[in-house]
Amino acid sequence: MPRHMQRMPLELGLQLNINRLISDGLVQPEKVTKPSDFSWLNDEGDVRATAQISADLTSTQVDNVRNGTMRIHASWIDQTIRLIGCTRHFGGLQWYAVCPVQHRCVSVLWSLPGRRFFAGRKSLGKQVAYVSQYHSPAARAQYMKDKLCDRIAGPEADEWDVPPKPKWMRWRTYERLSNRIEIHRSEAGPLPLLPRRFLLDGDVV
Fold this sequence. Notes:
Number of domains: 2
Strand content: 25-35%
Largest sheet: 6 strands, antiparallel
Number of helices: 3
Order of helices and strands: EEHEEEEEEEEHH
Low-confidence stretches: 195-205
C-alpha cells in the first residue's frame, strides 16, 4: 500500500546535476565558462524557472584534488557553489558539488519551492521525500517508465511507448534503457495526480 503523503515531494523543487551540466557544456573542466542561460522545465516542457550558470575550473591540482566554483545567478538567486574534482583510478577527474549546508560532495543539488539556494539531498532531512515513495507498485512502475523515457527523448517522450534512439546515445545504453522501459511498461498503472508546482514566492499549490 502506498503511504499517505506528509512530506514535500522532492521533485517539486529544482535540480542541478553537475554531471549533466558538464555534458551540456555549461561547466567545462579546466576552463572558465561565461554565464549561460539555463531553464528548468516541467513534464509538459514549460519553463518553471530560469537562471544563468557560470563556472571557473582552472585552479591548480593539489593532492589529487582540484577546486573550482559555479555561480547560479538570477533575480531570485545569487549563489556560488564550490566544486571539487577528484582523480579517478583510470585517469581524469570526477567532479562534485560541495553541499553548502553539510559540506558533503554530491552530484546533485536541490532547491525547494520558496528557497533561494541549492543544497544536497541529505541536508533537507525528513521534510522531503521522492514522489515514488508514495506510489503503489503499479504507479511506481509507470513513474519509472516515464523517467526512463524522459532520459531518452526529453519533453517529447510522451509521443512513444518506447522512444527511438537519439543520435548521440550509444546502442548499448539505448538497449539497456529500452529493455527496462518494457519491463516497467508491463507492470505500469495510472499515476496519482500531483497538482503542485514550483513557485518562487514560497507557496506550493
